Amino acid sequence: MLNLDIKGQVGTFSVNAELQAGLGVTALVGPSGAGKTTVLRAIAGLWRPTEGRIEIAENVLFDNGEGIDLPVNKRRLGIVFQDPLLFPHLSVEQNLKYGSPAKNPAWDGIINLLDLGELLKRVPRNLSGGEAQRVALGRALLSDPQLLLLDEPLTGLDDERREQVLPFLERLRDETDVPIVYVSHHRDEISRLADLVFSIKDGTIVSEQTPKEYVQSRPDLS
Amino acid sequence: MDSLFSDPAVREIVWLSLKVSIVAMIFVLPLAIMVGKWLAKPDLRGKSLISALVHLPLVLPPVVTGYVLLLVFGRNGAVGSFLNDIGVGFTFSWVGAALAAGIMAFPLVVRPIRLAFENQDPRLHELANTLGASRWKRFNTIALPLAWPGVISGLVLGFAKALGEFGATITFVSNIPGETQTLSLAIYTLLQSPSGDSSAFALMGIAVVISFAAILLSEILASRLTKKRGQ
Q: Which helix (H) or strand (E) holds A197?
């Protein structure tokens, strides 16, 4: 589904990452500064590797050999960061519709899936952290993405809110067919959500494991 | 105040000043938004130089700006002679007064707009980009609406500056009652005559009221916008 093989430099930090991910949830884990977010930004087109190739289900997003570098707004990727980054001057409904095609047939399904119906008329500043992150997920999903990139989406939330949002992510995995790349360093999130785990260190993918293998190999993590 | 406004000469001065300032702002604002957005780019090459050029009218003696305008836009000027041929004359006309006011106000309009663009979270723009928004849609739906408080501040500062503009105006388009004699020029003229003090005071009162109302309005609008967004 996702084939990635990239090399590049961010300041003095080198990235040399290769991974093949299938459908479902692919987790990308590693310590801070290992290059997780850089890989995600490369997929999104927000950072340009010096060489390599990125393709999703045979859609080539980047290939320096062929001179392909699809603009960010043509890549059809839904991104959710640690910070929900809702547009502060727009209502929840306007935020959700921002990237959505007009008369989106998926609208009702996604609103129900993430339980957003009650929030539509609210403005971002009146939402709790968990609610805002659900809206950010909905906004990304409604843009009809071919892949969802979730960059530590629960890290900014306290334990209670994380527990409230996690079931929504499980439903998202089970009830939609959008593949997900999930960056996190929380063991419980990975064991509950992921189908495959790639570990990254110093900009390089160092292992590919099942969630079970990963959890057993890292007893030091919470 | 009522009796003051019943005087046709006063009404004419006030109307002319408002016309000059409003027309100046109508032309300056879109340009200031473009320049402000451009200057807010973090990786703009030659930023200091461009910024210095934009701010030049603020630091130059207004007489110099007025004289440069006369050289460029006067009947024999490089641009003025061409415009004159197609029927647009700046010299000794209120249109020239609006041009002088607009140029003098430009740096004051650009500055808060530029700051409003600079202070925006670049990640919001990246996110809009990932949601498929074109460059124009990102500007129109994210950058510009988030910059509104700065745009309003710039507009009011510029309007006040245009209303009070004196040196460049009198140098460029002279001081012709009914055509280029704005509030400041009229006050100056009245103060030159021994019996003009009381009328001059009345016009000063009007200037204070208009300027204060404009600033008050901008404060109210800006604080409402800020409150609405919880910024």
A: strand A196-201
Tell me the pTM.
0.87
Give domain A2-217's CATH number out of 3.40.1370.10, 3.40.50.300, 3.30.300.70, 1.10.260.40: 3.40.50.300
Encoded amino acid at A97, one letter: K
pLDDT in tens, A44-100: 999 999 999 999 988 999 999 999 999 999 999 999 999 999 999 999 999 999 999
Is residue B93 within 8 angstroms of chain A, CB to CB? no
Task: State ipTM.
Answer: 0.90
Residue among B153, B3, B126 at smallest CA distance from A149: B126
Set of chain A residues whose Cβ sits within 8 Å of the Cβ of B151: none
- Residue in A81, A124, A143 closest to B132 by CB: A143
Place of tokens 């670049």: B122
Is residue B227 within 8 angstroms of chain A, CB to CB?
A: no
Across the interface, whether the CB atoms of A85 and B134 are under 8 A apart is answered no
Pairing of strands A196-201, A25-29: parallel
Task: Report the gap between the CA of B67 and the closest CA in chain A (Å).
Answer: 45
User: Any chain A CB within 8 A of the CB of B48?
Assistant: no
Q: What CATH number is attached to the domain comprising B205?
A: 1.10.3720.10
Integer angstrom CA distances of residue B50 from B62, B107, B168: 20, 12, 22
Instruction: Please count the other Cβ atoms lying within 10 Å of the Cβ belonging to residue A186.
Output: 18
A102: contact with B, CB 8 A cutoff:
no
Domain containing B126 equals: 2-229
Domain boundaries, chain A: 2-217
